[in-house]
Design a protein that fits this description.
Radius of gyration: 17 Å
Shape: elongated
Distance between the termini: 25 Å
Helix content: 25-40%
CATH superfamily: 6-pyruvoyl tetrahydropterin synthase/QueD
Strand order of the largest sheet: 3-1-2-4-5
CATH topology: Tetrahydropterin Synthase, Chain A
CATH architecture: 2-Layer Sandwich
Number of domains: 1
Largest sheet: 5 strands, mixed
Bound molecules: nickel (II) ion
């Protein structure tokens, strides 16, 4: 059967601050720039979840996108939307909430729900021009 990739887009707003406690203010600013702002700041994150696999002969689907929508809503949007990632999301209490790390956290949350024969790729936009991809490697 042909392999097809299906995609689902989602969105969340969240605040963060990038810093390392053991670094000086100057070094933190040099490395993280505006994202080091002490009082946090928000981003409008755009998420694309892509699943690749063979088309199921019975349904004609790779994966039911309605089901994927519900999983993303519960696992990602309800966990991250309108949250301060550093203060309110367990995973980022000890992990810098960069787009890279957020993509890995999202991947791991979804992997538990998606059948193993499907490959997952996460595309996460932190700004319209800055985005990362992660597919579990
Ligand atoms: Ni930022």
């Amino acid at each position: 059967m042909p392999k097809v990739t299906v995609h689902r887009k989602a969105h969340f707003n969240a605040a963060h601050r990038l810093y390392r406690e053991e670094w000086s203010d100057d070094k933190n600013f040099e490395v993280f720039g505006k994202c080091n702002n002490h009082n946090f700041h928000g981003h409008n994150y755009e998420l694309i979840v892509s699943l690749t696999g063979e088309i199921d002969q019975e349904t004609g689907y790779v994966y039911d996108l309605g089901k994927l929508k519900r999983i993303i809503k519960i696992e990602i949007e309800e966990a991250l939307d309108h949250k301060n990632l550093n203060l309110e999301v367990e995973e980022f209490k000890t992990l810098n909430p960069t787009a890279e790390n957020i993509a890995v956290v999202i991947f791991n949350k979804l992997r538990k729900h998606i059948p193993l024969h499907l490959e997952i790729e996460i595309t996460l936009y932190e700004t319209p021009r800055n985005f990362v991809t992660y597919s579990g490697n």
